[in-house]
Amino acid sequence: MKHILSVLVQNNSGVLARVSSLFGRRGFNIESLTVSATTNPAISRMSIIVTGDEPTLEQIIKQVSKLEETIWVRHLQEDDSYCRELVFVKLLTDSSDVREAIRQIADLYGARIVESTGNTIIVELTEVPSRIDAFLDVISNFEVLEMCRSGVTAIQK
Q1: How far is CA 22 from its chain centroid?
Q2: 145 and 91 in contact (C-beta within 8 Å)?
Q3: Which residues, listed in sequence order, are joined to residue 53 by a DSSP beta bridge?
Q4: Cβ neighbourhood burial of 117 (10 Å; 0-12, 13-18, 19+)
Q5: Is the pLDDT of residue 155 over 90?
Q6: pLDDT for 145
Q7: Contact between 46 and 7 (Cβ < 8 Å)
Q8: Which of 6, 81, 95, 121 is placed for a possible disulfide with 74 were both Cys, Cβ 3.0 to 4.6 Å?
């Protein structure tokens, strides 16, 4: 199961390396990691997506909380927070039928066509991670040439 962690840390050099190496040393996998400034230049917010069961999540939270630079760690629920991720998908559109089908799916998910040339189309979607996963599952029925995800940015309501 995927979990969203919001971590407030002191904005010291090397803090990102210490957090990510903690995960590696403990055998935890980071699915997504974004770091952003806050209104205080001395503090940064990390949004981390991890996969694991409840005991694994508890262990991750305890370990991250122990780091010297950590101010606090919150486990965010998708329904109780604002979280968004950006994905770009480049698809092969070798016929007008395929192009139209992709446009319809994009409309259904609220995605935007950012470029449409010759035989490719690039779709952009900004949404919650579960909705992006669903979109990618549907769009995988077409020939995906490239895909990139930004990682989640999240804040509690």
Answers
A1: 20
A2: yes
A3: none
A4: exposed
A5: no
A6: 98
A7: yes
A8: 6
Query: 3-class SS at 142?
Result: coil
Closest CA to 36 of 63, 69, 7, 66: 7
Q: How far apart are CA 128 and CA 79, in angstroms?
A: 10
Cβ(65)–Cβ(99) under 8 Å?
Answer: no
Question: Considering only CA atoms, which of 138, 114, 117 is closest in space to residue 125?
Answer: 114
Indicate the DSSP class of residue 9: E
pLDDT score recorded for residue 33: 92
Q: Which residue stretches of 27-154 are H helix?
A: 54-66, 96-109, 129-139
Q: Find the mean pLDDT for residues 99-107.
A: 97
Query: Which tokens sit at 137?
Result: 């599952």
- Checking if the pLDDT of 23 tops 90, the result is no
Q: Which amino acid is at 111?
A: A
Report whether 5 contacts 58 (CB < 8 A): no
| H or E segment to which residue 41 belongs | none
For 56-98, write each residue's pLDDT tens digit: 899 999 999 999 999 999 999 888 899 999 999 999 999 999 9
Alpha carbon 24 to chain centroid, angstroms: 19
Number of other CB atoms surrounding residue 99 within 10 Å: 19
